[in-house]
Amino acid sequence: MEVRRGRLVLANPVLTAAGCAGFATELAAALPLERLGAHVVKSLAPFAHTGNLAPRLAPVPGGMVNSVGLAGPGVAAWRAQAWPRLKERGVPTALSIWGFRPEDYGEALAQLGDIADELVYVELNLSCPNLDASHDLFAHDPVATAAVVAAVRSVTSAVVLVKLSPNTDRILEVAAAALDEGADGFVATNTLIAQWYRGPRPALGAERGGGLSGGALHPVALRCVAELRARFGDVPILGVGGVATLADVLRFVRAGADAVQVGTALFVDPRRPVQLLEKLAGEVARRGASSWEDFCRALRSGRSGE
Prior knowledge:
Elements: E1 3-5, E2 8-10, E3 14-16, E4 39-44, E5 57-60, E6 63-66, H1 75-81, H2 83-89, E7 93-97, H3 102-112, E8 122-125, H4 142-153, E9 160-163, H5 171-180, E10 185-188, E11 192-194, E12 197-198, E13 201-202, E14 210-213, H6 218-232, E15 237-240, H7 246-255, E16 259-262, H8 265-268, H9 272-286, H10 292-301
Parallel strand pairs: 3-16, 4-7, 7-8, 8-9, 9-10, 10-15, 15-16
Antiparallel strand pairs: 1-2, 5-6, 6-14, 11-14, 12-13
Helix pairs in contact: 3-4, 4-5, 5-6, 6-7
């Protein structure tokens, strides 16, 4: 079940999604994090951030709208308090980082120091719609994206994946700019800019709205993955958006994803990633594939018996 694409190596193709499984081992009682391809830690900046006002989550048809606002203790505090617990349990960890300026991303990596080399990869969150600048994201602008990746590359040689936005028609331009500055690949995609109401007022404390995730996002994320794979060939691509069933995983593989992240489904059942991994391993064995790569190739070519 090992995944290998470019410099990215995962023990298996099922990961958590940033923002949905905590900063450390919060879900360890229900989810054996050490069995995952990677546990993607909630996004951190080089400073502490309080996030948005409550309520921060609103269930909606087909998923949920959230406006947590990237609340977190900051990279330095995470390194001191959370990283030792993850390392002790042997959890394969990927760290999502964010900032208001390109320099913030570089500072976040600088604060990590040599820990960056122990991470599975670093995920650059350039596309969260839950901030004041939700319509002016780094991931909507090739120049801004290039500046962030360049700032990160100046301080680390770690595997770097850029989390892209579905809220732009420039996703391929943005992706190309990221690769030009040394990004290794992509996470596709983040949430859709959305709004929800309870009575006459918005349902979330951040009244401007938030990000839509869950099953309603799935077809959009599939389109993003398919376009990225068609344009960029052999770069690593992780699919995220509405992954809750084996069929969802298989659709992402057909679209071109090397692995998937599970997000909103964790709020329904935090055991879901391991359940999916077990079903996926059974499917690989049932189809007689000799490796994950062979399984993906057969599924995409129609040689899977379907």
